[in-house]
Amino acid sequence: MELKTKARLAMGSFLAACLIPSAGMLVLPEGTAAANQQLAAPPSLTREDGSFNPEVFQEVTDYIADHFALRQELITADAALNAAVFHISAEEKVTLGREGWLFYAETVDDHLRTSPLTDRQLWAGAHTLGLMREYVEARGGRLLFTVAPNKATIYPEYLPDVGKPLEGAGNLDRLIPLLEGEGIAYADLREPLQGENTFLYYRLDSHWNTLGSALAQQTLLQALDKEFDPFWLTPAQAAAGSHRGDLYEMLYPTGTELDWDAQYDRPFTFTYVRQPRGPDDQRIETENPSKTGSLLMYRDSFGNSLYPFLAEEFSHALFSRSMPCQLNLLDQTGADTVIFELVERNLDYLAIHAPVFPAPERLLTGTPPTGEGTGLALISERHPLEGYLRLEGAVHEADRDSPIYIRLGKALYEATPAGEDWDGGSPFTLYVPREASLKDGSLLCIQQGELRALPLEILSSGRND
User: Fold this and answer.
1) Phi, psi for 273 (deg, rounded to 5)
2) Alpha carbon 106 to chain centroid distance?
3) What are the residue ranges in the chain where pLDDT is below 50?
4) Do 279 and 259 form a contact (C-beta atoms < 8 A)?
5) DSSP reduced 3-state for 146
6) Minimal CA–CA distance to 244: which of 232, 256, 233?
7) pTM tops 0.90
8) Integer Cα distance of 43 and 55 in angstroms
9) How far apart are the C-alpha atoms of 388 and 382, rounded to whole Å?
10) One domain, residues 185 and 294
11) CA-to-CA distance for 203 and 201, rounded, in angstroms?
């Protein structure tokens, strides 16, 4: 065969192989997203108003990149090759550990203490929980806060060689004394989880397994001084190959390896008020008439396997994944117990996502002197608290541990020291009655150890006062 003919055949084969993923979109079924992956939506030639969409070509590119044929299979093959040959992860959110363990990449920063929260952010998170505690206790309930430890915190020996942690305390250890200062009941799950010889987290997943959930339930109910029949002491059977890990699916979307888990011989006896779509459902409500007490739990994905164990021990329970926490759910349920669970890697949420509840009113005697700087707040009417306005803003000059107060007319409210704009100073959020006066407002904060009043500029979103 002539050299030119061989070259043409090789080039033709190469081009045909390149066309398979695109041409395959016409004949092969579309693959599904892996783990929490978000695939690009189909492109559109026009906008909602009927005009030409100038982004259509970029949308076509993004859609093909996410939907070409055999995409997931090729991603899996590439990840397996990188792991086997180069010992690196093809997915930036996943870190390859020792002996086949996988870790969520963000948790390595927590382990190394390379992304510390500021002192103000930690204080703001603790004080936000203090305001939540005040709200819950005013309604006859009790608040328990807990942190689900990162897998890297419980099993650092399975991390790759990522270096030695920096000196000093991590975010959680720095937060705990501040919680004590705010009177927050806190259940530390690290010691009980680290004290067991059996694996309590999945090898291929970022979460604790069924045994870890049962031990977490026991620790939380003991912290509440609640009588219960612990699953942790109930015989369990090994269920090999029963769980598909979220980290594994992110890395190998068409892989088939499953994780070990356990199954308790004892069945759950609670029932659902409404059958949830799955453990990730935003709202899960349960009943168990043979038990006492009512529970409202704000939780994240670590609650997916934990909530059944807690539902088993309360007459009524509502599990919410709302973020920020909507405390009006407490008024709806009348729960006597509130648990707030948050994973360790997301401790910054406490200072970013202000809970939804009416700002508490405060009393002030005398007139504080004028301080330095100004406060800025923006009104929003788009939020879940009916009959209230939300004011969000920031102040630059407040001390590290300064509460923030907003005076509107004759009323003085304490703001939650949390918000998204930490680059703009110390953020704050508060919900005030819709009829509140927005004229001549002022902001009060502590500057250099003394309470000072600052002028407050309120930017309206169209509401006429």
Assistant:
1) -65, -40
2) 13
3) 14-17, 24, 26-28, 68, 462-465
4) no
5) strand
6) 256
7) no
8) 9
9) 10
10) yes
11) 6
